[in-house]
Design a protein that fits this description.
N_methyl_site, 5-stranded antiparallel sheet, alpha+beta
Length: 153
């Protein structure tokens, strides 16, 4: 073939077309990965927050139910309790004892074994004013429940 001969058109893609497609696909993949990662993190945080709220609710329900079941103001009082050399302010309700262990971020119950009633708890406060018992529980996500129980005369 001579210098002036025409080049035949060949089927296929040019290098520029291939590079453009690779660049576009890379951008799409990065955006999709970012969206998936963000959605996944949001889901995990939401699940954790729901778990904390459920812990706060179940602890509050158990404690206030125990207070109502006991019913007698003389069997409900506040007193310090010592566990593993550490002293805690405890709420005594009948045969049960409730206290907050800040090292575990949990509300523990009962005298002997100190089993966890709820974890992921930032604070557990309570007060007794005659027949009025106030219990406040705050989860590590800031969710707070405040419950007041009035005992019968």
């Amino acid at each position: 073939m001579g210098m002036g001969a025409k080049m035949k058109r060949r089927d296929g893609f040019t290098l520029i077309e291939i590079l453009a497609v690779v660049a576009i696909m890379s951008v799409v993949a990065i955006v999709a990965t970012s969206l998936f990662y963000t959605g996944s993190n949001t889901y995990i945080k939401s699940e954790k927050s729901m778990e904390i709220k459920q812990n706060v609710r179940s602890a509050m329900e158990a404690i206030t139910s125990d207070i109502k079941r006991t019913g007698d103001a003389s069997k409900i009082y506040v007193k310090d309790i010592t566990r593993s050399g550490k002293t805690y302010k405890a709420l005594y309700v009948g045969d049960n004892v409730y206290y907050y262990d800040d090292s575990k971020k949990s509300i523990c119950m009962n005298n002997n074994n100190g089993q966890e009633l709820a974890n992921e708890i930032d604070s557990f406060t309570f007060s007794i004013d005659g027949r009025k018992i106030t219990v406040i529980i705050t989860g590590t996500d800031g969710f707070t429940l405040n419950n007041v129980v009035f005992l019968p005369k």
